[in-house]
Recover the amino acids of this structure.
């Protein structure tokens, strides 16, 4: 999708042709209050980030602890496609430990604002420049790529800041970074600073923004407009205080709004986001851009109608482009299309009059000020339509057996009147249920894949405490199915059957009698 306003940018900015992603999820992201990752967890995230296509992974601050050193060392030794970096103060021991950990880049930093120099470092301007130069030279001697940050750059005297940047450039720094340490810059400021730093040093310039004023993404993009070709980001925007610039927001804006190349594999974004949220214990807010649960959810009838006809009406990009999926939420603002779409996701196809009756009941519940769970929606359908609802595939039997050697899941489906019995195996109840559903539907449909699934604990129901969403691929079609259930395995089976029902009800494939 090309924005009609793209021409407004032409001639205004000299945008870099390719932006380098310097990911600091494992360093600044880990500085999020309350977050501490184990070596194994850091390794998992680093592997995922590398697969996502980030250019540099700041794996940690090697001098900080044994575990941190171990993490940087393990990640450096993985042979990832991404370069691996450690943070380091302007201190010989820090640099030694970082280099010994085997990283490719060392990110050396020293503060340049009067506030930090006087109250934190207790150093004069001259001493700061001297130390920065000496340590950049030392790091270069140790054979690593040197990335230099002037901490609190945006509250530094601008003339002094440029003097520091020039001095470290002369000392051999490979690239320089402008940190907006406490998030006080404005986009105009970041744009001008990046431009100035580039003119003065001729080096690749990075911007490192914090979100204290909610401006991190805007400031980072403005830095790129000013000529910065490296962006410091974290997955899900985690980081000190209000966080750092979100990788996903900048990546999407660069590609879809500016048309600038990155190395990011966009369809991997949601997967990595979920991994980081799970391992750090910092949930993604529902309304977070790109990766929040609501980012591609629609409730209003007008929007749902539009999105069903043409997704671009109310979506800036397609959810699949970032590994997300579209959700239609049922509530007060729903219309007939919403009800029909959600019921199809559960494998039900109703007549127009029946959909209308369901909608009336939904609105009556919503008017009481209650969110309607999917379970309640299905209950309404059951009450109003009962067995008249058309569903080619129905789960009729389910048994789960856990033994020492693994799990077995025995399942019975009625497929257009014929009974099919399969047994799935796996290391967990969930795995054995997934196996059972794949066996059953491969049996009737041929090549079918489960691309992704998510399981949620439902806050509304005791009888069916789980909800699941699955994405299947069959005959080249990607279909999202939903299910509710009593256990994780039961729920996944219901969700897969719903997806298969949708497929069968909309394609010309015939199965069973
Ligand atoms: O925010 C900051 O200033 C930092 C530096 C270490 C680059 O994280
Ligand atoms: Zn920072």
């Amino acid at each position: 999708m090309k924005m009609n306003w793209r021409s407004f940018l032409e001639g205004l900015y000299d945008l870099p042709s390719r932006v380098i992603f310097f990911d600091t999820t494992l360093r600044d992201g880990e500085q999020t209050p309350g977050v501490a990752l184990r070596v194994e967890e850091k390794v998992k995230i680093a592997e995922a980030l590398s697969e996502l296509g980030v250019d540099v992974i700041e794996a940690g601050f090697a001098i900080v602890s044994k575990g941190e050193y171990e993490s940087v060392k393990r990640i450096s030794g993985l042979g990832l496609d991404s370069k691996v970096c450690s943070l380091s103060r302007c201190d010989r021991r820090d640099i030694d430990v970082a280099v010994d950990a085997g990283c490719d880049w060392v990110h050396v930093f020293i503060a340049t604002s009067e506030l930090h120099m006087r109250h934190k470092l207790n150093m004069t301007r001259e001493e700061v420049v001297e130390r920065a130069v000496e340590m950049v030279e030392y790091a270069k001697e140790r054979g690593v790529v040197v990335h230099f940050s002037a901490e609190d750059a945006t509250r530094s005297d601008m003339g002094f800041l440029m003097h520091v940047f020039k001095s470290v450039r002369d000392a051999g720094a490979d690239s320089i970074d402008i940190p907006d340490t406490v998030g006080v810059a404005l986009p105009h400021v970041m744009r001008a600073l990046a431009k100035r730093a580039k003119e003065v040093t001729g080096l690749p310039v990075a911007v490192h923004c914090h979100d204290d004023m909610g401006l991190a993404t805007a400031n980072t993009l403005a830095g790129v407009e000013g000529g910065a070709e490296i962006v410091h980001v974290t997955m899900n925007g985690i980081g000190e205080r209000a966080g750092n610039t979100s990788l996903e927001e900048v990546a999407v804006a660069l590609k879809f709004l500016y048309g600038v190349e990155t190395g990011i594999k966009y369809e991997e974004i949601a997967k990595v986001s979920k991994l980081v949220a799970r391992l750090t214990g910092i949930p993604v807010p529902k309304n977070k851009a790109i990766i929040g649960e609501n980012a591609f959810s629609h409730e209003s009838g007008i929007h749902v109608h539009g999105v069903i006809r043409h997704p671009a009406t109310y979506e800036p990009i397609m959810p699949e482009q970032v590994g997300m999926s579209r959700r239609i939420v049922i509530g007060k603002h729903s219309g007939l299309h919403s009800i029909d779409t959600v019921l199809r996701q559960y494998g039900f196809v109703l007549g127009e009059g029946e959909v209308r009756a369901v909608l009336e009941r939904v609105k009556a519940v919503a008017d009481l000020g209650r969110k309607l769970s999917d379970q309640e929606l299905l209950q309404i359908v059951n009450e109003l339509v009962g067995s008249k609802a058309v569903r080619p595939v129905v789960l009729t039997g389910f048994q789960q057996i856990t033994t020492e050697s693994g799990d077995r899941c025995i399942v019975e489906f009625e497929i257009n009147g014929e009974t099919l019995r399969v047994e799935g195996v796996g290391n967990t109840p969930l795995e054995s249920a997934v196996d059972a559903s794949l066996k059953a539907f491969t049996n009737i449909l041929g090549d079918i894949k489960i691309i992704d699934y998510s399981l949620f604990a439902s806050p509304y129901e005791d009888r069916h405490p789980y909800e699941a969403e699955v994405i299947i691929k069959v005959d080249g079609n990607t279909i999202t199915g939903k299910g509710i259930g009593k256990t994780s395995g039961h729920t996944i089976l219901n969700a897969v059957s719903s997806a298969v029902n949708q497929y069968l009800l909309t394609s010309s494939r015939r199965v069973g009698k």
